[in-house]
Amino acid sequence: MPENGSPRAAIEARDLVKVYPGRGRRPAVRALDGLGLIVPAGRVFGLLGPNGAGKSTTTKILTTLSRATSGSACVAGHDILREPEAVRTAIGYVSQGAGTDPFLTATENLEIAARMRGVSAAESRARAAHLLDEFGLIEASGRPVHTFSGGMRRRLDVAAALVHRPSVLFLDEPTTGLDPEARAAMWAEIRRLSGEDALTVILTTHYMEEADRLADELLIVNRGRAVVQGSPDELKAALHGDSVRVTLVEPDPAHVRAAIARVPGLRDVMVEASGVDGVLAARTDDASAAVGAVISALDAAGIRYGQVAASHPTLDDVYLHFVGHTFGEHTPAVPEGVAA
């Protein structure tokens, strides 16, 4: 539970475990492995991790769409097992797939969504008109949804999740597949919702930039476990100094480590190889001096490389530091048809 004086928690989950049973020769998969989290109310909370890390499984359990193998959770003050209907009343949910009928108009979709949530006919019409205006869809309100662009459809999906005025909104990978302009527009909507409407927004994403720009607080998830939680700035500040990153060509990791061992001032050195590509990542207190020394060491050892970059800590560096490998590598397999 939150300590005295801390923000009220919109969500608390403890020791969530989800095991998908094996089928035939396919072994069982432990999609969640004791995951816990606390989400303060009125914030944008990001669940960040590569595909298969357990983000969508966590979301489905918290929205009562799936049942945990073990563990407990409360959403908006309601226990997900004992009070599932109260949880569903308190939340809005936007899945990775489309949530609106492509053959109905935007207005019809919103009014039907409201009526299904128990809103009166008159209030449904008023709420639909308000949301269409709020999401910039008034001019397209009478068109069938199948004529909408991808960005317009996603905005309508979010609007449909808000028709009953929930206190917690779950957005599962809301910008996947959108072009940069539509993605930026969705980011603006998410920020507006959190700021103006005081919603708690749970955002699952595998986009580092999206998590960095939108989330007030982040939980990095890997292999179904909570790795580290904090604001993007706090997590980056925990990595003192600068980062040095080198793209490697057909690397021999042992050879690279031996060459770099002679460079003074490097720490947290990580060398990974994947096919013909690889990466060398390290931290240093003096990036300007370290870059030249790293290049010299690689040249002297005959190691081929591409881009060499030095920067202040990024979320990629945070992920590498706390998880132990680069983002997207070593992700567990998930059964076909199961979102994780």
Could you explain the architecture of this structure?
By secondary structure, the protein is of the alpha/beta class. It has 2 domains: 9-236, P-loop containing nucleotide triphosphate hydrolases (Rossmann fold, 3-Layer(aba) Sandwich), CATH 3.40.50; 240-312, Alpha-Beta Plaits, CATH 3.30.70.260. Helix content is 34%, strand content 28%. It has a 6-stranded mixed β-sheet with strand order 6-7-8-3-9-10, sandwiched between helices. A 4-stranded antiparallel β-sheet has the order 2-1-4-5, covered by helices on one side. Strand 1 and strand 2 (29-40) form a beta hairpin.
Number of helices: 11
The CATH topology of the largest domain: Rossmann fold
How many domains is the backbone divided into?
A: 2
- CATH architectural designation of the largest domain: 3-Layer(aba) Sandwich
Average pLDDT rating: 89
- Coarse morphology: elongated
Q: CATH first level of the largest domain: which class?
A: Alpha Beta
Strand order of the largest sheet: 6-7-8-3-9-10
Determine Rg (CA atoms, Å).
23 Å
Low-confidence region ranges = 1-6, 330-337
The N- to C-terminal Cα distance equals: 26 Å
Kindly state the number of beta strands: 14
Which strand-content bin applies to the residues?
Answer: 25-35%
Largest sheet: 6 strands, mixed
Find the CATH superfamily of the largest domain.
P-loop containing nucleotide triphosphate hydrolases
Share in helix: 25-40%
Briefly note the structural class of the backbone: alpha/beta
Key features of this structure:
disordered N terminus; 2 domains; 4-stranded antiparallel β-sheet; elongated; Rossmann fold; alpha/beta; Alpha-Beta Plaits
